[in-house]
Design goal:
The protein is α+β, with helices and mostly antiparallel strands and about 90 residues long. It has one domain (about 5-90): ACT domain (Alpha-Beta Plaits, 2-Layer Sandwich). It contains 3 helices and 4 strands. It has helices spanning about 5-15, 35-40, 70-80, and strands spanning about 20-30, 50-55, 60-70, 90. A hairpin with a 5-residue loop joins strand 2 and strand 3 (about 60-70). The termini are close together.
Length: about 90
Amino acid sequence: MTEQELLTLRNRIVETTTFPSVYMYKFIVDSENRKIALIENLFEPEVDLHIKESTNGKYTSITAKAVVVSVDEIIEIYKKANEIKGVIFL
C-alpha cells in the first residue's frame, strides 16, 4: 500500500466514520503460520479475530474487529501490515 493509497484511505475513513468506533480490518495472506501470527500480533488480545483458510488451503483470511478512537490508529495498523510480504488488504 503506497503513501498515496494510505492518504486516500485516511480521507475515506474520516468522511464515513465517527469515533470511537468498531472498525473491521480484513487481510488475506498465504497460509503460513508465521504470516498469520504476524497479522494476529498487530492487534491487542481483546480484539475479535476470525481466521478462515481457503478451500484449497493456499490462503487464509483474517478479519479483525477492533474498537478504535482515531483514524491514526487505523492507519498505523495498515502501515504495520504493509511490512508483511504478500499481505492483501480488503
